[in-house]
Give the backbone structure.
Amino acid sequence: MSKKLIYLISFVLLPGLVGVAAGTEGLKGEYYHATISAHEWQDLVLTRIDPDVNFDWGDQSPEQGIVNSDNFTVRWTGMIEAPNSETYTFHTEANDGVRLWINSELVIDTWTWNKKWQVTQPPIEIGSGNITLTAGQQYEIILEYYERGGSAMCKLSWSTPTLPQEIIPNRYLSVERPNARNPEPADDDILRVALVTLLWAPGDYAVSHDVYVGENFDEVDAGAADTFRGNQVSTSFSIGFAGVPYPGGLVPGTTYYWRIDEVNDLHPNSPWKGLVRSFSIAPRTAYNPNPADGGDSVNPNVELGWESGFGAMLHYVYFGDNFDDVNNAAGGLPQGTTTYTPGLLKLAKTYYWRVDEFDGLARHKGDVWSFTTEGAVGSPEPSNGAVDVKQTPILSWSPGIYAASHQVYLGADQEAVKNANTGSPEYKGTKNLGSESHDPGKLQLETTYYWRIDQVNDVNPDSPWTGHIWSFTTGNFLTVDDFEDYNDYPPDEIWNTWIDGFGTTTNGSTVGYANPDFPAGEHFVETNIVHGGSQSMPYFYDNNLKTSEATMTLVSVRDWTEEGVTKLSLRFIGDAANSAERMFVALNGTAVVYHDDASATQITGWNEWVIDLQEFANQGVVLTNVNTITIGFGTKNSPTAGGTGTIYFDDIRLIR
């Protein structure tokens, strides 16, 4: 469970603070005189608007004559808006300590009052933390900082897979906090009660509050009629007893969603739609097993644990190495604790367990969970449960400790794969130790496949060791290139497939990094800025009196009508600092389609460019026999004076 910040911040307007206009960019900074004791937030001396948090005061005061140069604290508050929907890494640099909350979640905590600082070389506390944000949505931000002595510094930046690290620009920060905040229960909490009182802190301009509560996220988000519970002045709302919603009580195992919209009929921006929050009532069955269901490399001396079901008083534990035996087990003596030690287990073996809960009135049968001890086959690729897997994946795994070879089983029927032996159609052959991969050929689109790897060693009486059942689901597309198969060794470097302009005077393209720092974990391909998987193609263009083109000769995916595909899709990221250039795709070297935006190279964030294949067919391309695909910048065959830039490409696909 994430740590949550739940308190209200009182706003004090001092003479030095100009009234905040609607839409003011930046954060409200409250500066306090502090002591080393617990009184760091009692002596407020300055309130102002800071456009960003990018301060290096050295030995000076943040505001001469008002704020101390030592022993002071700052609290910045406001709202932050994400430009793209993705995972953001927040970074802090501070001397001395900081704490950062985003949307009430503690993201960074380097609050270390008791450190012994070096005066001549003051250390810098560097912190970072991740949180997923949605584009266009505002989130509350609270940053707290303290300075004890010596040099003072505080900086707040962010980065994402598509954005380089930068001080958070003030255009994404707002002093206003118009939305309801500090929800209780906290988002995603699991409760063990039949009634709940929802609490929140009001937005800055709220006069009243529209309350929505329901059991369906989409309905609450859309404000469906039966989820609207009324408008009220109070900042609390109860559910789960007579006279209020859910009068019969909240139901164990159910997730409830709620939303608070802030209302002020005299304000032009009213109402302010709130985030949809959720909480769940614990199920009557046991949940949250440890080890996690399907876990591998588990210590053979493991102690099993779980969260007890709602109202559970006693627990019946069943354990064994056969699913059916555990699933069908009954009877036995109960126990009062939520842990169980099965004793020393065998290596490389799959075990099954189940916990039934007794609440004084009835027994509630639990799910059958499983785990595999250390030494078993592991690290499946595609990962277990993966979706949107390409039609032609290469299955791989890490070897078991006892294996002299591995047997491969694959099919679309889970039970058939589970029960298969070497005489079954699901058996795909044996791989010798050192060859832990299998090429299943071309699979069906939009199909879930199950696979199992058994390790075999004929000289060991325990052989074979039956593996887990893993699964993956193929996507609804054909893969032209997902950039996952390139590496740093001949002949698999990316430029050996995508032929660029290196060494020429008429083609300004280069793909891949020319001089990666291998010891530092760099590669010829990009591994941080990716759309899917773990790699993308960095593409550098220089259109100074030349065009830039990189071409791949197709080997396997040449029929661009197969499976009913009708469109080409490719993902790319530009940069606002790039030179504006036309971007094009060419097939077979002649049929060319240009991006609608002549400045596509400057578009930030991952973008999907979809091209109707008929546009190529109209230029004479036989779609059943496509030979090459080219990505280029400029006007093909018409070089002009242009500029330079970097684009990243990923997930080139054919879609329906």
Notes: The domain at 27-174 is CATH 3.90.182.10 (Toxin - Anthrax Protective Antigen; domain 1). The chain has five domains: 27-174, 181-281, 287-373, 378-475, 480-655. The chain is about 5% helix and 40% strand. Confidence is low (pLDDT under 50) at residues 1-22, 113-122.
